[in-house]
Amino acid sequence: MSTPATDRHEPSTTANERDMLDGWLDFHRATLAWKCEGLSDEQLRRTPLAPSELSLLGLVRHMSEVERYWFREITLGEDLDDLYCTEDDPDAEFHLTEQDTWAEAEQVWREEIERARQASAGRSLDEVSIGRSSRSGEQFNLRWVYTHMIEEYARHNGHADLLREHIDGATGE
Questions:
Q1: Are 37 and 10 in contact (CB under 8 A)?
Q2: CA dihedral 140, 117, 2, 14 (to 10 degrees)
Q3: Could you tell me how far CA 28 lies from the centroid of its own chain?
Q4: Global pTM?
Q5: DSSP 16
Q6: Which 3 state secondary structure label does DSSP give 122?
Q7: Where does the pLDDT of residue 103 fall: very low under 50, low under 70, confident under 90, or very high at 90 and above?
Q8: Of 113-117, 129-133, 169-173, which range is least confident?
């Protein structure tokens, strides 16, 4: 892949913990945006790794759900509906139609990222979440949420790299 138009910077190697976590999370958010740059809606909807249903557009929609869940529902304790998923289709973010567009998915994703930033602003990394895991009932400190989000993006950026290579041959870290 050529140099991204998306602004992507690794955090300082000597940053404090909070700046390091914010920096790595933003780096991985920018990496996913970069993997989607310059592709048509049709290309972003492609699922070239059969039998997997993964697509770049689906990954962006998934990360919107993940941002919303960890920063708003868990950290703040907000009671929110899912963006795409339903009880009948818990993986709906990956089940795309021709009506699903990059413009809509990117707008929702960027809005959830901004809300995530607001949710974490002014909070200590040691502060425990208001919300609890729907599976285990556990609470999480903000440090854990950041670490999990970085892991989640890093894993899915690996998927995005493979998808992009299969779509147009572009590669890059």
A1: no
A2: -70
A3: 8
A4: 0.94
A5: -
A6: coil
A7: very high
A8: 169-173
